[in-house]
Amino acid sequence: MSSNTQLIEFLQHELAVSPAEINVLLHHPEQAHAPLHMILWQYGLITLQQLTQVFDWLDAQI
Question: Domain tally for the chain?
């Protein structure tokens, strides 16, 4: 399973980001230049606290 797939599963299951929101952002032009979690935060789809959870999760994956 790719790390992006694992991140998407984390976002959906732990932070309740909808598949529709993720799908839109995956096809967004900015996605090529910024990580998905940063775009979610930039557009207000996750809070700063949730962004911190993502960073903690990413650190645990290493």
Answer: 1
